[in-house]
Amino acid sequence: MVEFFKNLAGQFAHNFIEGDRWQIILDGLLVTLKITLFAALIGVVLGFFIGLVRASAERNGKSNPLTWICGIYVTVIRGTPVMVQLLIIYFVVFMALPVDKAVAAIIAFGFNSAAYVSEIFRSGILSVDIGQTEAGRSLGLTSAQTLRHIILPQAIKNALPAIGNEMITLLKETSVVGYIGLVDLTKSYAIIQSRTMSAFWPLLAIAAIYLVIVVGLSKLLNIFERRLRKSDKR
What we know:
The protein has 234 residues and is mostly helical. It has a single domain (2-233), classed as MetI-like fold. It is built from 9 helices and no strands. The longest helix is centred in the N-terminal third of the chain and has 39 residues, at 22-60. The chain starts with a helix and ends with a helix.
């Protein structure tokens, strides 16, 4: 048994300690978190705008060219794989431009996330009873004031848990950025394996890091949801 643990310790040291190979994983993790954070910001801002446009059109029963463009955007993005979108953004859209790979990845994942976030916001807005809009108008509020003070606060509150889940999904989806040459958390496995000829330990470490982050975010999201439910009961 002692020999077994010595062997494990030796393999661990060979994969991560020797040559400071743990630094490769840390650098990859920082790249993953950076892409996730900035892509999430783009996704939320752009998704909110698209969701608002589409929900407003559905509530009013009126469509316009902007509504059609947003609808086509959501359909195309949700109907194609995120990896294909990443490759198109980097190798086609930015082919002749000196754009950093991380920037291209952030844009690709941000635009992808926006399509899903927009549907979350759209559903959140439409989930607010139409009678509340009518009540706001009867109180003398304009359409914009009713939307801002009555509809949006409730819609955003309804949408927040689902947006949290979308951010967790986004974190995991960024694992494909290695296809454009970025060394993220997942890609760091291949670098360590090429130097140690061992796949088990690098993959185990990367899977464990993803699991810890996702479980931690899920716990925070559950706490947040419980607090939202408590505030609803007051």
